[in-house]
Structures are given as structure tokens and as C-alpha cells.
């Protein structure tokens, strides 16, 4: 049996990388099929004996890319899929772009989001694809319950957390590319606080963090990982707190070389959707695997992970004083939070669950 793991564009979706690596660890013949990927991700998978297929030129964008993705996946499956094989669809967008194609095959649908912010047509497509799946996989327990009852699924989706399955220790080093080497040389053995976002801008949550750091008069280095759209906005933040390093975007999993050398990790979700309230961030596991405590805001998804497991502190991010107190609490009990983070990472293991998902899917297909 071959397992085809399909993702439209795997860049910036670490959880799909984790799932593919888990399937390989479980000795399945897993074949990643990507619309687009990156050299870093392809090399990572190849180093683990996994051969990825990247079907579309990376210069393709927009509607042209979607059309070529549909055509390429349809052709690939027609030529390669055999009865008894299994398909994993890695994301909602990967699946919706294959409407009219994917339902011809048995597939496990990995749903990363609740899509409560999406337009109704898109959400209806997600629900339709979920109902036709052999199994559905969510990444957070409250999301799974919501999907079952709000979407009308016959079963509660499996819950596979976004725990990394990289070789962790080799990443905590001096860096493997020039960019990470330079950053690590500036933060190693220092108190670096890592803040990650898709886009770094003059946001209230970042400004509040900067103001809290300024009021503490400590030697923290604030490391901002993510795309910078407007340099002027970063300069505004630096006027609040000057000890800042902006890395720009670092491709996954190379960003973990920075994480592995940090002191505290930041995780914040705006309270503007159910998807954010019941968040399932891979960041908390990326921090925990190195024993890096997390400072986060107090949305339910973070209270139920960060606070309950004592891997860090949840605070009211609208209060600069509360952020400051959270940092002070971590400082005061740093070794305790570090130990709890490592314990949390080690006790979270999805391998047996992933095997159960595959075994259950095979049983349903052959029923």
C-alpha cells in the first residue's frame, strides 16, 4: 500500500511536514505530492528517505497555478494510484482546489482550520469534502467537537497535535545557513525573546510587548521572525524598544535554529474568530522541544495547553503590566518552566495515533 500525501503548497505548513515524517517513521510507503514546495523542505524529506514530487513550477501563481495544480494532481493519480492505496489531503485549500477530482478516491482529510471566517461557499466545500472523507483529522480537541456537530459529521475527527517530528538536537547549533548563523551569533547565551508572525508590522500586541520590555529595563533581545512589509513600521516599534533583531522570513524548519537558541517564546492569537480562540499552534511545541518557556495571551486554546501544563504563562495581552508580570514570573521560576516544557514535548507523541488513523482508514476501505 502506498500513501499519497497531497499538499497544494507545503511552504509555511510545518504540520504537513510532521505528518509525512510520522508516516515514514511508521514504515509506510509515503509519497508526498506537492503542487509547490521549497528546496529546504524537499532536502529535509529526502534526508529521511522520502522522495517528494513537486509538480508545478514555483513561478506559477494565482488562477494559473490552481488550474495546473488540478490538472497535475488528476494526471498523477490517474497514472499512479492503485486500488488499496490511500490518500491524505494535507490542508483545506489543497482539497477545495481538487473539487470534482478527489472524491473519486479514498482519502483522509486533515483539516487545519475551522474556516469560521471563510465565505459560505468555501466553507460548504470544506464540509462536503469532510463528509466524503474516510476519516477527518483535526489538530485541536475543541475544533474537532465543533466540526462534528456544526458540520454534521458522522464521527468526531481524530485529533493530531502539531508536534514537530524533526531531528531536534541537530537544529540547536551554530546554524546551517549564513542567515541563521549570523542571528545565532548575536543571541547565543543571551536572553532572546522570539516573536513569530507571518507578517511583522506595527500591531498592538507587538507594541504592548515592546512597551513591557522597555519598562523592565532588562537585557532582553526581541527577535522578530517573519516578513516585514513596511520598514517604517519596524522603526516605530524600535522607538519603543531598541534592542530588536528582525530576521525577515526564514523557511521552515530552519527557523527552529533560532528557536533552539532563544530564552522565551511568544505565542499570541487575536480574539476575532473561533479558529483563533481554539488555536493549535505548532509554535508551543517548537518552543517546548528545546525547553523554551512560552509567554502567551489567554485565549482558551493556549490556556488549555500553556497554562494547564505549566510550560509558560498566559496573560492579558491588553495589559502592559500583565505582560511584564508574566515575564517576571517566568524569570523567577525559569528552570521549572523549562523542565515542564521538555516534559510536555516528550509526553506528546502522535505516532500510535497516526497508525490508528491509517489502520482505521484501511479497514473502512476494505469493508
Could you characterize the architecture of this molecule?
The protein has 17 helices and 13 strands. The chain has helices at residues 14-25, 39-47, 62-80, 92-96, 120-132, 141-150, 168-171, 178-187, 204-216, 231-240, 255-259, 274-277, 283-288, 300-307, 320-332, 334-347, 351-366, and strands at 2-9, 29-36, 53-54, 86-89, 107-110, 135-138, 158-159, 192-200, 221-228, 244-248, 264-267, 294-297, 312-315. It is α/β, with parallel strands linked by helices. The model has no long low-confidence stretch (mean pLDDT 94). α9 packs across α15 (320-332). α2 links the parallel β2 (29-36) and β3. Helices cover 47% and strands 18% of the residues.
Strand order of the largest sheet: 3-2-1-4-5-6-7
Determine the N-to-C terminus distance: 16 Å
Structural class: alpha/beta
Main beta sheet, described?
Answer: 7 strands, parallel
Please tell me the overall pLDDT.
Answer: 94
Helix content: 40-55%
Unreliable spans are none
Question: Rg to the nearest angstrom?
Answer: 21 Å
Q: What is the global morphology?
A: globular
What's the number of helices? 17
Strand percent estimate: 15-25%
Count of DSSP strands: 13
What is the topological layout?
Elements: E1 2-9, H1 14-25, E2 29-36, H2 39-47, E3 53-54, H3 62-80, E4 86-89, H4 92-96, E5 107-110, H5 120-132, E6 135-138, H6 141-150, E7 158-159, H7 168-171, H8 178-187, E8 192-200, H9 204-216, E9 221-228, H10 231-240, E10 244-248, H11 255-259, E11 264-267, H12 274-277, H13 283-288, E12 294-297, H14 300-307, E13 312-315, H15 320-332, H16 334-347, H17 351-366
Parallel strand pairs: 1-2, 1-4, 2-3, 4-5, 5-6, 6-7, 8-9, 8-11, 9-10, 11-12, 12-13
Amino acid at each position: 500500500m502506498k500513501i499519497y500525501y497531497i499538499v497544494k503548497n507545503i511552504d509555511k505548513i510545518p504540520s504537513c511536514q510532521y505528518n509525512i515524517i510520522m508516516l515514514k517513521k511508521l514504515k509506510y510507503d509515503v509519497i508526498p505530492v506537492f503542487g509547490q514546495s521549497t528546496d529546504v523542505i524537499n532536502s529535509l524529506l529526502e534526508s529521511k528517505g522520502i522522495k517528494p514530487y513537486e509538480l508545478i513550477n514555483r513561478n506559477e501563481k494565482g488562477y494559473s497555478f490552481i488550474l495546473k495544480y488540478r490538472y497535475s494532481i488528476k494526471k498523477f493519480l490517474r497514472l499512479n494510484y492503485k486500488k488499496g492505496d490511500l490518500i491524505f489531503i494535507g490542508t483545506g485549500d489543497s482539497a477545495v482546489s481538487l473539487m470534482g477530482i478527489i472524491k473519486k478516491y479514498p482519502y483522509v482529510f486533515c483539516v487545519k482550520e475551522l474556516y469560521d471566517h471563510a465565505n459560505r461557499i468555501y466553507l460548504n466545500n470544506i464540509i462536503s469534502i469532510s463528509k466524503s472523507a474516510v476519516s477527518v483529522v483535526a489538530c485541536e480537541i475543541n475544533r474537532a467537537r465543533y466540526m462534528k456537530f456544526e458540520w454534521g459529521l458522522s464521527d468526531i475527527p481524530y485529533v493530531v497535535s502539531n508536534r514537530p517530528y524533526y531531528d531536534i538536537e541537530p537544529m540547536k547549533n551554530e546554524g546551517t545557513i549564513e542567515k541563521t548563523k549570523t542571528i545565532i551569533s548575536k543571541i547565543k547565551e543571551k536572553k532572546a525573546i522570539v516573536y513569530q508572525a507571518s507578517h511583522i508590522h506595527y500591531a498592538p500586541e507587538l507594541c504592548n510587548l515592546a512597551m513591557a520590555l522597555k519598562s523592565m529595563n532588562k537585557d532582553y533581545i526581541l527577535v522578530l521572525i517573519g516578513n516585514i512589509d513596511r520598514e517604517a513600521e519596524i522603526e516605530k516599534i524600535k522607538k519603543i524598544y531598541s534592542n530588536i533583531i528582525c530576521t525577515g522570513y526564514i523557511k521552515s524548519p530552519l527557523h527552529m535554529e533560532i528557536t533552539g537558541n532563544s530564552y522565551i517564546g511568544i505565542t499570541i492569537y487575536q480574539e476575532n474568530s473561533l479558529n483563533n480562540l481554539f488555536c493549535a499552534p505548532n509554535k508551543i511545541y517548537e518552543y517546548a522541544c528545546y525547553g523554551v518557556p512560552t509567554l502567551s495571551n489567554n485565549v482558551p486554546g493556549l490556556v488549555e495547553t500553556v497554562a494547564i501544563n505549566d510550560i509558560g504563562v498566559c496573560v492579558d495581552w491588553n495589559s502592559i503590566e500583565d505582560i511584564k508580570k508574566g515575564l517576571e514570573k517566568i524569570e523567577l521560576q525559569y528552570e521549572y518552566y523549562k523542565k515542564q516544557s521538555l516534559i510536555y514535548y516528550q509526553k506528546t507523541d502522535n505516532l500510535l495515533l497516526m497508525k490508528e488513523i491509517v489502520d482505521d482508514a484501511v479497514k473502512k476501505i476494505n469493508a
